[in-house]
C-alpha cells in the first residue's frame, strides 16, 4: 500500500487550485457555523465562547471562524483585485457586503425586535420612539460602523445582555482589507512588486509575535493589549489588536495567492501544518505558529477535499447570511427559553432559525444583488471595462470590536480571554 506521506514530485498551489472546482464554499459554511457554535456559550448560558478551554484561552471556535474568513478572503479578493479595474472591483465588493448587511439591519430592527417587544412587554408602545430605537439602530450602523448595539432597551435580561448583533463588527475590518487590495491593485503593486505584500505580511507577523513574546511573563494572558486608535471621521475607533491580527490573516491569504506558483501542495506539508496548528492551539504559542499553519491548511483543504464537496456554496452560498443572522436568532431563542433544552438542542435550534433567515437572504437579496456585478451606468456604457493584463500564471477568482463603543464580550473577537 503506498504511503500517502511519501514525497513525490510536488505540484504547486497554482497547479492544484481550480477557480471552478474547489471546496471554499464548504469551508466558508463551516466557518460561519463555528461562530454560531462559539456564541452558544455566552448567549445561551452566560459562559465564555466555546473553544477557549481547549486552547488555554488563546482563541475560541468563533475566532477560528473569523480568522478563516479573513484568510480565504485575502486569497480570493486579491485575485479579484488583479482581474478587474478599480471601479469594477469596488462595485463587486459593495454588492457582496452592503445589500445583505442593510437588509439584515432592517430585519433585526423592524421585524425581530418588534416580536421581542411584544414578548417582553406585551406592547409596542415606546418601541419606535425610544432614544435608541430601531430607526436609530439602522441609521447609526449604516456603514458597518457599530455605533449602537441595543434597540429600545430590550433583551437586557439575557445572559449576555441586550446586544442585538455582536458579530457585525468584523465587517468594517473586512472593508478595510478590501480597500487595501484596491489600492495595491490600482498602484500595480500586486502585479509588479508582490514582494511588497510579502514584506507587509512579514512586518505584521513580527508585530503579532512580538506582542505574544511581550506578554509571556504575565500569567493567564497571551496577547499584549495595544488599545485603540481614533476616532476618525465616519470610521470611528479601531482596535489595534484587531487591525494587526485580522490584517495578518488577510495578508497571509493574499500572499498565498501572489506566490501560488511557489507554494507546494503536498500531504507531508499539510500533516506538518496540522500538527503545528493543533499543537500550538492546545499547548500554547498559537500566535507564533498557528496563523501560518492555519492559512496553509485552509487552502490545502480547499484544493484536496473530496470532489463532492466542491459544489457546496457554488450556486447557493448561505455562509454570509448565517454569519450576520446567527447572533440575533440566538438572542431571541435565549430570551424565549430555548437554552433550557441543553447545549446541543440550543445550537440545533439556533442553526435552524438562522437558516430561516439566511436562505431568503441569499435568494431575495444577495444573489439578485450580485447579478448586477456587470452593470454599468448609461453614461459609462460606451466605455468598456479595460481588459486585465495577462498574468504569467493562471488567474484565480475571488466573505470583529466596534468603533465607538466596546464590543459585546460575546463577539468572536481576535483577542482571547
TrEMBL record:
Keyword field contains Transmembrane helix: yes
The keyword Nuclease belongs to this UniProt entry's keyword annotation: no
Organism encoding this protein: Virgisporangium aurantiacum
Membrane-crossing residue ranges in chain numbering: 64-86, 98-119, 168-189, 196-214, 234-256, 268-297, 343-365
Name the UniProt record assigns to this protein: O-antigen acetylase
A biological process term (GO) from this entry: lipopolysaccharide biosynthetic process
Positions of the UniProt region annotated as Disordered: 381-417
Classification lineage: Bacteria, Bacillati, Actinomycetota, Actinomycetes, Micromonosporales
Residue intervals of the Acyltransferase domain: 23-359
This protein's UniProt keywords: Membrane, Transmembrane, Transmembrane helix
GO terms of molecular function: acyltransferase activity, transferring groups other than amino-acyl groups
One Gene Ontology CC term in the entry: membrane
InterPro entries xrefs: Acyl_transf_3_dom, Acyltransferase_3
Amino acid at each position: 500500500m503506498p504511503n500517502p506521506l511519501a514525497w513525490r514530485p510536488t505540484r504547486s498551489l497554482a497547479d492544484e487550485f481550480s477557480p471552478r472546482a474547489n471546496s471554499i464554499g464548504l469551508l466558508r459554511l463551516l466557518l460561519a457555523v463555528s461562530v454560531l457554535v462559539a456564541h452558544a456559550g455566552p448567549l445561551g448560558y452566560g459562559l465564555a465562547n466555546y473553544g477557549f478551554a481547549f486552547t488555554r484561552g488563546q482563541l475560541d471556535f468563533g475566532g477560528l471562524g473569523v480568522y478563516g474568513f479573513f484568510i480565504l478572503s485575502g486569497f480570493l479578493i486579491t485575485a479579484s483585485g488583479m482581474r478587474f479595474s478599480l471601479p469594477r472591483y469596488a462595485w463587486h465588493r459593495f454588492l457582496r457586503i452592503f445589500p445583505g448587511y442593510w437588509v439584515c439591519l432592517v430585519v433585526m430592527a423592524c421585524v425581530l425586535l418588534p416580536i421581542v417587544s411584544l414578548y417582553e412587554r406585551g406592547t409596542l408602545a415606546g418601541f419606535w420612539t425610544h432614544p435608541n430605537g430601531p430607526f436609530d439602530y439602522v441609521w447609526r450602523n449604516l456603514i458597518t460602523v457599530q455605533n449602537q448595539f441595543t434597540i429600545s432597551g430590550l433583551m437586557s435580561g439575557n445572559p449576555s445582555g441586550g446586544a442585538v448583533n455582536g458579530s457585525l463588527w468584523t465587517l468594517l475590518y473586512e472593508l478595510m482589507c478590501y480597500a487595501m487590495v484596491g489600492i495595491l491593485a490600482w498602484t500595480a503593486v500586486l502585479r509588479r512588486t508582490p514582494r511588497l505584500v510579502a514584506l507587509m505580511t512579514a512586518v505584521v507577523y513580527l508585530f503579532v509575535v512580538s506582542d505574544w513574546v511581550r506578554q509571556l511573563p504575565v500569567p493567564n494572558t497571551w496577547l499584549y493589549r495595544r488599545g485603540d486608535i481614533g476616532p476618525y471621521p465616519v470610521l470611528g475607533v479601531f482596535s489595534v489588536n484587531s487591525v494587526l491580527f485580522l490584517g495578518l490573516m488577510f495578508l497571509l491569504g493574499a500572499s498565498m495567492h501572489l506566490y501560488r506558483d511557489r507554494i507546494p501542495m503536498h500531504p507531508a506539508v499539510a500533516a506538518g501544518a496540522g500538527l503545528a496548528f493543533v499543537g500550538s492551539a492546545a499547548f500554547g504559542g498559537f500566535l507564533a505558529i498557528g496563523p501560518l499553519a492555519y492559512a496553509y491548511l485552509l487552502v490545502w483543504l480547499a484544493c484536496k477535499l473530496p470532489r463532492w464537496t466542491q459544489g457546496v456554496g457554488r450556486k447557493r452560498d448561505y455562509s454570509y447570511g448565517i454569519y450576520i443572522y446567527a447572533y440575533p436568532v440566538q438572542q431571541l431563542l435565549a430570551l424565549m427559553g430555548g437554552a433550557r433544552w441543553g447545549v446541543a438542542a440550543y445550537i440545533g435550534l439556533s442553526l435552524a432559525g438562522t437558516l430561516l433567515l439566511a436562505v431568503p437572504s441569499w435568494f431575495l437579496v444577495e444573489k439578485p444583488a450580485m447579478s448586477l456585478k456587470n452593470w454599468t451606468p448609461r453614461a459609462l456604457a460606451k466605455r468598456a471595462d479595460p481588459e486585465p493584463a495577462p498574468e504569467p500564471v493562471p488567474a484565480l477568482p475571488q466573505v470583529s470590536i466596534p468603533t465607538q463603543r466596546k464590543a459585546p464580550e460575546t463577539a468572536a473577537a481576535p483577542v482571547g480571554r
